[in-house]
Amino acid sequence: MAALNGAVENGQPDKKVPPLPRPLRSLEVKYTKIFINNEWHESTSGKKFPTYNPSTLEKICDIEEGDKPDVDNAVEAAKAAFQRGSPWRQMDAPSRGRLLHKLADLLERDRVILATLETMDTGKPFLQAYFIDLEGCIKTLRYYAGWADKIQGRTIPVDENFVCFTRHEPMGVCGAITPWNFPLLMLVWKMAPALCCGNTLVIKPAEQTPLTSLYIGSLIKEVGFPPGVVNIVPGYGPTAGAAISTHDSIDKIAFTGSTEVGKLIKEAASKSNLKRVTLELGGKNPCIVCADADLDLAVECAHQGVFFNQGQCCTAASRVFVEEQIYPEFVKRSVEFAKKRLVGDPFDARTEQGPQIDQKQFDKILELIESGKKEGAKLECGGLAIEDRGLFIKPTVFSEVTDNMRIAKEEIFGPVQPIMKFKSIEEVIRRANSIEYGLTAAVFTKNLDRALTLASALQSGTVWINCYNALYAQAPFGGFKMSGNGREL
Amino acid sequence: ASPIPAPNPRPDIAYTKIFINNEWHDAVSKKTFPSINPATGEVICQVAEGDKADVDKAVEAAKAAFRLGSPWRRMDASQRGKLLNRLADLIERDRAYLAALETLDNGKPYAISYLVDLDMVVKCLRYFAGWSDKFHGKTIPLDGDFFCYTRHEPVGVCGQIIPWNFPLLMQAWKLGPALATGNVVVMKVAEQTPLSALYVASLIKEAGFPPGVVNIIPGYGPTAGAAISSHMDIDKVAFTGSTEVGHLIQKAAAESNLKRVTLELGGKSPNIIMSDADMDWAVDQAHFALFFNQGQCCCAGSRTYVQEDVYKEFVERSVEKAKARVVGNPFDFKTEQGPQVDEEQFKKILGYISTGQREGAKLLCGGNPAADRGYFIQPTVFGDVQDDMTIAREEIFGPVMQILKFKTIEEVIERANDSKYGLAAAVFTKDLDKANFVSQSLRAGTVW
CB of A288 within 8 A of CB of A466? Predict the structure, then answer.
């Protein structure tokens, strides 16, 4: 998703606009169990846990609750599938790529089902789930399908009479713990590269949003991945998640979630078997708007940048730095945008913003909003929940924010846009870099030198110039400092 | 594996014209030429004969498709990959038809067209589809306050001249990389075998490639081919064919606009059988190396060097195998070898066979035409071949095997490398050190 900046539409000679997809109104949830060896299992303990629809606050269904014994079973299956001589190890690389392509085909076939499930489970608007989440999933699978037979080693002319070559071999059993903000997309970001390289997986999806991850288990089986290559264990972090990060037979763990839990995972990895760790954590991403920016573009990008996905993005533009000359105009236009943002039923095609994911997040966001008010930020609009509407929060804009306020330092993960003022480039670089996060940053300017200077000065994994959330399978993604270790894609 | 579908030996020929801008055109001159069925010597159909005027039209179309801002230039790299995958899907859909057409026009056994040629075509296109959005440039930290990066941009209008021995596969080898990287193509297909490539042109349109991105011209080398290699608006020419014509193409490129040139030419590839080789496997593979595709492979193992200890046995077994090779109607599933592609090749090969006999090589089997109709030649084996004989130095491109004797590794390496060619080579041995030593000493693009 990106502001296309007026770019010419992608080269298709046929310019027909297809009709908008519609969600499935009475969708039965078929897959609620633990997926191991291409089969569905009940939990060892017999326990189940509920998953809720955050728009209606109703329980959707119960899910088998995985814990350590289930993780152990999954790891056994993944290890067996990774044995030398197994069907998966014997499979040639282009055939792995074909399976990934076919999986993408099945996601395309079941796109409406998956988008409906994702909206039911997360509250994100259906059309966004369909056009953004599912699009990203399909493209990422196809991108990695293409890489499968292109992972090349080298021959190296070492001294003396040796034949020396490197081979890039799969790591083995990979643990993946995925978040609730983009459940299916974050799962595909882990699964596609891992499978492309020939690994096997043990996945724990977020307890808030297991449905699409479990559905994809059925597609993995349908496509024909050998049993044990992908295993999915729904459950909670302190139980199933911890079992994965401390497991002695898991060779690597990839985690997307909060910095707080990221630290626990890295610690558990080091205390157990020194498994390799990659982390995609939080961000408090600066969005720097210079006086010479295209103001309409900057306002719209900053707005979408912070409010997209109910504010629940690691890439959220949650510190907007505006050069003082244009500050009042920028605030005014941002407030206009925020006030127009349509909050409502995510299955309604007009809705732009659904509910927050759960009560815990909802409470945290409101608490931070209160802190903004108390610490002296100016509340321009919003600032409270929508009455009698469960987990819905009004799009909120604060101006006159200063760096010491909590809303300027802590990741809010909600529909709250803090706008700050700056005088000079040197100052804004220093302030932008002054926190422990460093995931993404954005710069709005027409000046070439300024753009390049900021791009290299900002301590940020990704820097977007005159765009926002331009995320594509082809480009790597990851954080500096405590926003993460390593890169995905 | 599912069985091969039965072929239709009389497939309908829907496409016989020149393909420009996703449309079918007669030649500007209105001339046509016949495409012959080499199994019978009969004309299959007439095909439009492209010449310079048609090449000019095609180049105009390609240039327009390559203009900045055009649909092809604006298309996401990943979308180019999608189109290539779609083309692969369509070829898979029409696999049996294409295999039958290939066999009709070229003479190769249908079972092989279906299982080998078509399989490799699909895999090649899918492989390059995967590369399309993975061509990375670099950012480079120069001295001074500079921002420096490389971008890998398409070359432009690519002339592609393809041969008759693997018509569809050579087409895929050229189209896959060129289209994955965003180029536009003007392709001249071999006059002996235009039909399958023209059918693929219809699939290129069906897949959704914008008009002008791929243009295909049937025609002759001295006319259409020369027009391509000397064209001032073609940015690169890629040619697969004989070394003799390769010289002409490079010369024309130099004399016109210095277009980039890549050439895949002939070979006289050495196949080295050490005395510790697995004899069964070596005989089997050496037979395949020479006789596959009626001997019409640029990488044919056409100098079989056998270490003296195992020479006698190897020769006996190779002759046995050659005598057992089934030559016949390429649509028959029992057939292993079809006809040579045309009368010119047929006569040339028979000429080499008599030269071989004249120069003193020992004819051990074969040596004659295998049928009264069509261009079939008996699988032929010469023993006691010496390095200076014509049949040991020149590319025969037919089912004629040369077996030579050697004593030591150093000797065979020197003899193997003593050739103006260097396309491929092979070594058969169980010894790891010998394998590494020989493969690293041989001057050949590929060593098996």
Answer: no
